[in-house]
Specification:
The structure holds 3 protein chains of 3 kinds. By secondary structure, chain A is an all-alpha fold. Chain A has one domain (13-86). Chain A contains 3 helices and no strands. In chain A, helix 1 (4-29) runs antiparallel to helix 2. By secondary structure, chain B is an all-alpha fold. Chain B has one domain. Chain B is built from 4 helices and no strands. Chain B has helices at residues 7-33, 37-40, 45-67, 74-101. In chain C, a hairpin with a 2-residue loop joins strand 1 and strand 2. Helix content of chain C is 54%, strand content 14%. In chain C, strands 3-5-4 form a 3-stranded antiparallel sheet. In chain C, helix 1 packs across helix 2 (27-44) and helix 4 (104-116) runs antiparallel to helix 5. The chains are: A mainly alpha, B mainly alpha, C alpha+beta. Chains in contact: A-B, B-C. At the A-B interface, helix 1, helix 2 and helix 3 of A face helix 1, helix 3 and helix 4 of B.
């Protein structure tokens, strides 16, 4: 009877995969370096959401830990790259 | 997949998942489609705020219903993403302003 | 981190996070979490000697609810702008808003709130003149951003932090 949730999980997974693909296109196309980092930032959020959705779909708690690790490392990576672009302004007021 | 979930949890969770997926997709579409970087920088925030809230609420509902107790450790991810994702956005905005000027 | 009437708060939040993550509140786990929380709080103290003094818990909770509502609302607004962008490209631009808030923690909170809500990004803050430059996705819709930032966010933050 309860086919609603699996259907919603599949729909959400399709949405996140498509969102990740659009991020990938922006990453490849990019014109500036900031665009590429913005795309990477959005893609790690999408990956995080995919992991959480898979956790809902399979009813397993293990995906939560993966999502937490992605959140921690994704932020460290993208903010480090953004800070790298900013270098030089540290000296200039 | 879990078919033995009670309807009071499955229905809102399904609704939240659909909402979260759509709003994240709209955000990604905006990031792909909008014209200038200054406009594009706004778009992924959609997935990081509302998409994240929707999916985490759905996850909390489903795991609470499955384990028959209140599971709220998803709030940690929510708090962390809410605190950190604006930082990256601000740094990118600063970098873009710095590069456009010079 | 910060002390008010001798109550340190960082260890408390660390303990809470520990308990949430491990998922059980037995005595042994509680003691282990407490030990870690106190150790990390003491070890992290030299990293940030400047301490915040948040007061008025009720104002803080009220602000949190308000921010959540505003985030939901601006999500829908920005989604509409993106979907309509093919016909009518958004007219983005910068706004300058003079601020009265001086406390660095309050300013940091304001930056996170403004940037976390879709549609606005904190672009620059001039420490001398205390002026905030805000980038707005669409200047055409009749939203008075200066009033929103000053009345809805800055006022409660000044209450909490100053």
């Amino acid at each position: 009877m309860n086919v609603l949730l699996p259907w919603a999980v599949h729909f959400a997974l399709a949405c996140f995969a498509l969102a990740m693909f659009l991020g990938l296109l922006r990453l490849l196309r990019g014109p500036s370096a900031e665009d590429r980092i913005l795309a990477l930032d959005a893609m790690y959020i999408d990956a995080l959401l995919i992991m959480l959705t898979l956790g809902i779909g399979f009813g397993s708690g293990a995906y939560f830990d993966i999502a937490l690790v992605i959140a921690l490392f994704g932020f460290a990576g993208s903010s480090a790259m953004a800070k790298f672009l900013l270098r030089g302004e540290v000296i200039e007021p | 997949m879990n078919g033995d979930l009670p309807l009071w949890a499955a229905l809102p969770a399904a609704l939240l998942l659909v909402c979260g997926g759509l709003i994240t997709l709209i955000g990604a579409f905006g990031m792909y489609r909008l014209e200038s970087f200054h406009a594009r920088v706004h778009a992924p925030t959609l997935g990081a705020s509302m998409g994240m809230v929707c999916v985490l609420l759905a996850s909390m509902l489903v795991s609470s219903a499955l384990e028959n107790r209140l599971v709220i450790h998803e709030l940690l991810i929510l708090l962390f993403v809410f605190m950190t994702s604006p930082v990256t956005t601000m740094l990118l905005m600063r970098a873009a302003m710095f590069h456009r000027r010079g | 981190m910060k002390h008010r009437a001798g109550v340190p708060r960082l260890p408390f939040f660390l303990l809470l996070a520990w308990l949430l993550l491990s998922g059980d509140a037995s005595l042994g786990n509680l003691l282990l979490g407490l030990a870690f929380a106190v150790f990390i709080a003491v070890a992290a103290r030299p990293l940030r000697p400047l301490s915040a003094r948040p007061r008025r818990l009720r104002a803080a909770v009220l602000l949190c609810c308000r921010v959540l509502v505003d985030i939901a609302r601006s999500n829908l607004a920005v989604a509409g702008i993106i979907l309509r962008a093919a016909r009518r490209p958004p007219n983005g631009g910068f706004l300058t808003i003079p601020l009265e808030l001086r406390d660095p923690h309050g300013l940091a909170m304001l930056a996170v709130i403004v940037t976390g809500a879709p549609g606005t990004v904190w672009a620059k803050h001039d420490a001398q003149s205390n002026e905030l430059t805000l980038h707005v996705l669409d200047l055409d819709d009749r939203t008075d951003w200066a009033r929103i930032v000053k009345q809805r966010y800055e006022r409660p933050l000044m209450e909490i932090f100053e």
